Amino acid sequence: MRRILLRRFAQIIPLILGVIVLNFALIQMSPGSFLDVMTAEQQVSDPAMIERMRVLYGMDKPVVVQLLKYIWSVMTLDFGYSYRQNETVLAVIGQALPATVILMLASIAIALLIGVLAGVIAAVKVNTIWDNLISVGAVFFFAAPTFWLGIMLMIVFSVRLGWLPVGGMRDIGVDHGVFGDALDVMRHLALPALSLGLFYAAMYTRVMRASMLEVFRHDFVRTARAKGLSGAQVVLRHVFRNALLPVVTLLGLQLGTVLGGSVVIETVFSWPGIGSLMLDSVMSRNYPVVLGVLVLSSLIVAVANALVDIAYFRLDPRIRAR
Amino acid sequence: MSMTSTASPAVTAPTETVTPPAAITPVVLSGKRRAPFIDFVLRFARNRAALVGLLLVVILIAVALAAPYYYPRDPLRIVGRPELWPFANPRFPLGTDSLGRDIAAVVAHGARTTLMIGLFASLTATIIGVSVGATAAYFGGWVDEVLMRVTELFQTVPNIIFILTVVAVLGQNITNITIAVGVVSWTAIARMTRAEFLSLRDREFVQACRAMGMGNIRIMLGEILPNALPPVIVLSSLVVASAVLFESSVSFLGLGDPNVASWGGLIGQGRTLIRSSWYICAVPGLAIMLTVLALNLVGDGLNDALNPKLRDR
Questions:
Q1: pLDDT grade, residue A206 (50/70/90)?
Q2: Does residue A288 fall inside a structural domain?
Q3: Do A265 and A132 share a structural domain?
Q4: Which of A18, A264, A287 sits opposite B253 (nearest CB)?
């Protein structure tokens, strides 16, 4: 078991090396050098000074040496310095990360809850009005752009009804106490998490419905019925558990897209996470932060995928036997 | 050329490369054998939702083609009073935006942008995906290992973050956006192509081609690929839908091509006005949703028509 764990995590290393090389290639491909941006940002025009910076950043060296130096610095978690926030890139990203993780977890929870429930209902009541309503709803939410859905929800629930705040993570200048604060964050979280979650809920509904219907056809379900189990017992104990596996697989595969989706949703609701940071950095040409986000978010997805694989390995005896 | 391909089952349908080869064509339920193309159309038409999707796509293409005739001038120019509600002035059936631009004109021209980016991004993804998947499966060994690691790499990088980085570093224009969307979208196609090639590369007709002394490239492109295409075409059509969503997100964030009318861009500019004029966001969003919906439905229909064995799964 331990060897498999180690091997699975060792697979992350070449992956991250690949991301770093990709990053480096992007920098090399950019029109105008990195140095131009930095000198422009710091308003340096003295040629001697620019030459000194070239040497300082190793840009006088051949590309291969630059690449190796770049890999080394990223390996030591040195993503450079962000003049905009006056902190290291790592610290800047670290501060934004918790908000994004909260948003991602809430969205996944909503997606699983709604998707699995709707999928089960549609499958149990297959070819009824309920099934049709749920399936049509899923098709629509699967096609709606999340940022647009977010704005529409905001118009209804924040602007018209005034039930929920339009953006941010906390009310400004109000001290709610610890519990009040948690409640406050949840109120702010509701709409962004719902906008992002509904897209995945639609996908899980379709997968769950299909996979329930598939499992219903298996012999062991007929056996369970023949044993005299009630319909609910068959559905819950036998069908549901087996039908859930594809949804879990999908969830593991999609962590990257959920992270990407939260980037877009964060900017809609001014949620102070990686997405808002990313957009701000893109707009201000703050390349060290942009590239740092790319590497670190890939690392997060790689680690999360490894964890899902390992969880899978433990959960499903059929995989363990392979 | 045509004589050398006698070993291929594709010879049973020389004009229709899309059709599944005889080896994997299931027996048609009625027992009668129909022409493959008619069979394809009938299977597609059995899926009502797919027909609705196809109708929507046809309308979309018509709008995109008609846009330069109905709105010959730059859709981004200011033509009227700002924030005019839909139907308030018959000249602007969908109203005007925050600057006084005709929303109908932006939506019509946006259809062109959306379709172009969707198609070319999907084409890019298909070319990369098929090349990678086919090479990996055909040559196997370390080639396969390396190419699959690269595929994994592109699956790991969060796609929107990668697109934003590319656009930020290389510049905000339609070409960069299209290529970036294509570059994040090819991994599923590569895996599918690889799986198909793996199952086909040791079949008798391929061995026959080898025995006849055909080159690798010719066997891959001329013999295996046509037989591997059906599931790939389905995926490519779904990539068009996701590419439309990616493009709209990028434009919404204000990183689209500033010189081109775009649905996402219109939503992005209209979102500051949701208190007074929410229709500016609602209208182009509906257009995006219907487009993606239509493309997804057509993809489902293609899946039914091209992969009959998978249909009941």
A1: confident
A2: yes
A3: yes
A4: A264
Q: Are residues A182 and A247 in the same domain?
A: yes
Q: Is any Cβ of chain B less than 8 angstroms from the Cβ of A20?
A: no
From the list A30, A142, A294, which residue is nearest B161 (CB)?
A294
Q: Identify the domain boundary among A78, A102, A136.
A: A78
- In a domain, residue A295? The reply is yes
A101-115, A137-151, A300-314: which has the minimum mean pLDDT? A300-314
The residue among A28, A93, A139, A148 with the most chain B CBs within 10 A of its CB, best to mutate, is A148
Closest Cα of chain B to A194: distance in Å?
17
Residue A37's domain comprises 31-78
Tell me how crowded residue A129 is: count the other CB atoms within 10 A of its CB: 8
Probe site for chain A from B114, B142, B157, B304 (most A CB atoms < 10 A): B157
Which residue pairs from A32-39 have beta carbons closer than 8 angstroms and sit at least 24 positions apart in sequence?
A: A33/A59, A34/A59, A34/A287, A35/A59, A37/A285, A37/A287
Same domain as A306, residue A187: yes
Catalogue all structural domains in chain B, each as residue range(s) with its CATH number: 60-312 (1.10.3720.10)
Tokens representing residue A43 in the block? 């308003």
Cα separation, B30 vs B25, whole angstroms: 14
pLDDT digits (tens, 9 = 90+) for A213-239: 887 777 777 777 777 777 777 777 777
With a cut of 70, say whether residue A174 has pLDDT above it.
no
pLDDT of residue B313 exceeding 50, the answer is no
Task: Provide the ipTM.
Answer: 0.82
Cβ of A145 under 8 Å from any chain B Cβ? yes
> Residue A42 in 3-state DSSP?
coil
B158 to A301: CB separation less than 8 angstroms, yes or no? yes
Closest by alpha carbon to B228, among B255, B263, B207, B203? Answer: B203
**pLDDT tens profile A106-118:** 999 998 999 888 8
Considering A43, A58, A78, which residue would you say is the last residue of a domain?
Answer: A78
**pLDDT tens by residue, B207-216:** 888 888 888 8
| Domain harbouring A139, CATH code | 1.10.3720.10
Query: Which pTM was predicted?
Result: 0.82
DSSP at A32: S
User: Hey, are the CB atoms on A15 and B158 less than 8 Å from each other?
Assistant: no
CA closest to A300 among chain B residues = B156
> For B35-81, how does the pLDDT look when each residue is reduced to its tens digit (9 = 90+)?
777 877 887 777 788 888 889 889 888 888 887 887 777 777 776 66
**Does any CB of chain B come closer than 8 Å to the CB of residue A97?**
no
